[in-house]
Amino acid sequence: MTDWDLLSSYAGLLTLAACSIYAGSFGSLPPSKRSAQDRGAKQDTACDEDEDEEQPERLSSEDAWLFPVIGSVLLFGLYLVMKYFGKEWINWLLQWYFTIAGVGSGSKALISLARWVVGSERWKQYDNIKIRASKGPRDLLALSLRTPSLCLIPLGALPSILYTFGGSETKRSALLTDILALSFSYNALSLLTIDSFKTGSILLSGLFFYDVWWVFGTEVMVKVATTLDVPIKLLWAKSMTFSTDRGFTMLGLGDIVVPGMFVALALRYDYHKATSNGEHARSFKKPYFYAALFAYVLGLVITMTVMHVFRSAQPALLYLSPACILSFVLTACVRGELNESWRWTDEIQTSKGSNSTEETNGTKEMNVPTGSPSISSEEANGSVHLSTGSSVVATDGQRMRNSKRS
């Protein structure tokens, strides 16, 4: 007899994972590219780039070789700590770490969602609040927020706070676990990228053997994953009515983020090909992205099928790594682009002259030298400078829009 409750659990988990990778892949596109896709408008790069965007960290092939080694050391270290010292204190320590990380991750993910809903052009019409604290020539703190973010940050922090400090019905619930895990996944895919298909293949190949060894060769992976009480996994109840009586199916974030970085790279390569051929940025073709995403879904389906048939935990990267790599190789071979795509490197694009552009567009900054009670104004470029010690606060937005209209 077909177990529809369990099948619905697999389907729900698969949907969450695929949607997370889809959103994170588009989140990995640089701000100027996302803006062009949202509106298809040509704007000045410095004006169009949002100040609250962070530059992603690129993984090189040298980093990829070290990933399985570092992962093995950390995994086995956690296993030894739990085995000989107990799980209580390590869970307590990680609880506080992920509570703080969850506040930032949830807030950033909610801000990204709001920006996508209203559109980049509309988002940039809100006032931009800049806060910078410095000591001498060194910046100690630098923040840049649009005004809606002031309301979105507390809302984004709620899941993490409720997960740790909520009542019996909300504390560590599957819903809050999934919300936090999805926010971690989105931000990881947006801010941690790989620089080439060569690096991606090395990373997936190394973690293929890492996953197989620690799942099939030892009890370490399963023991750590089921013991740690932190939101680093996706959960779905084994029930069509979301009853928790039968427990949950589980998928670790590593099985989303690692292949997800490869899928996101495929999307950025599609964009590179489209812009090189002069295609419109809003509707560029995505053969490599769709092939990689389909391969990920197919690999996860195979993982769940094998897990269901043999009734045992499976190393998902055993199926996901070959699926993602093969999707790239086959797509490149069919299109006759294997050598070109293998040599391609996703370089970081930085905007030039951002400081001068910011000055000429009416950005208001307040600079305060220590011990100086003076207030001065410079009418030449419309800036107002106010002293307060070593901190700088700046707001623009409405005044910038007015200057543009004039």
From TrEMBL:
<feature type="region of interest" description="Disordered">
    <location>
        <begin position="349"/>
        <end position="406"/>
    </location>
</feature>
<dbReference type="InterPro" id="IPR007369">
    <property type="entry name" value="Peptidase_A22B_SPP"/>
</dbReference>
<dbReference type="GO" id="GO:0098554">
    <property type="term" value="C:cytoplasmic side of endoplasmic reticulum membrane"/>
</dbReference>
<protein>
    <submittedName>
        <fullName>Uncharacterized protein</fullName>
    </submittedName>
</protein>
<dbReference type="Pfam" id="PF04258">
    <property type="entry name" value="Peptidase_A22B"/>
</dbReference>
<keyword id="KW-0378">Hydrolase</keyword>
<feature type="transmembrane region" description="Helical">
    <location>
        <begin position="64"/>
        <end position="82"/>
    </location>
</feature>
<dbReference type="InterPro" id="IPR042524">
    <property type="entry name" value="Presenilin_C"/>
</dbReference>
<feature type="compositionally biased region" description="Acidic residues">
    <location>
        <begin position="46"/>
        <end position="55"/>
    </location>
</feature>
<feature type="transmembrane region" description="Helical">
    <location>
        <begin position="206"/>
        <end position="228"/>
    </location>
</feature>
<feature type="transmembrane region" description="Helical">
    <location>
        <begin position="248"/>
        <end position="267"/>
    </location>
</feature>
<keyword id="KW-1133">Transmembrane helix</keyword>
<feature type="transmembrane region" description="Helical">
    <location>
        <begin position="174"/>
        <end position="194"/>
    </location>
</feature>
<feature type="transmembrane region" description="Helical">
    <location>
        <begin position="94"/>
        <end position="118"/>
    </location>
</feature>
<comment type="similarity">
    <text>Belongs to the peptidase A22B family.</text>
</comment>
<feature type="transmembrane region" description="Helical">
    <location>
        <begin position="139"/>
        <end position="162"/>
    </location>
</feature>
<dbReference type="GO" id="GO:0006465">
    <property type="term" value="P:signal peptide processing"/>
</dbReference>
<feature type="transmembrane region" description="Helical">
    <location>
        <begin position="316"/>
        <end position="334"/>
    </location>
</feature>
<dbReference type="InterPro" id="IPR006639">
    <property type="entry name" value="Preselin/SPP"/>
</dbReference>
<dbReference type="GO" id="GO:0033619">
    <property type="term" value="P:membrane protein proteolysis"/>
</dbReference>
<keyword id="KW-0812">Transmembrane</keyword>
<dbReference type="GO" id="GO:0098553">
    <property type="term" value="C:lumenal side of endoplasmic reticulum membrane"/>
</dbReference>
<feature type="region of interest" description="Disordered">
    <location>
        <begin position="30"/>
        <end position="59"/>
    </location>
</feature>
<keyword id="KW-0256">Endoplasmic reticulum</keyword>
<feature type="transmembrane region" description="Helical">
    <location>
        <begin position="288"/>
        <end position="310"/>
    </location>
</feature>
<dbReference type="GO" id="GO:0042500">
    <property type="term" value="F:aspartic endopeptidase activity, intramembrane cleaving"/>
</dbReference>
<feature type="compositionally biased region" description="Polar residues">
    <location>
        <begin position="349"/>
        <end position="393"/>
    </location>
</feature>
<keyword id="KW-0472">Membrane</keyword>
<feature type="transmembrane region" description="Helical">
    <location>
        <begin position="6"/>
        <end position="29"/>
    </location>
</feature>
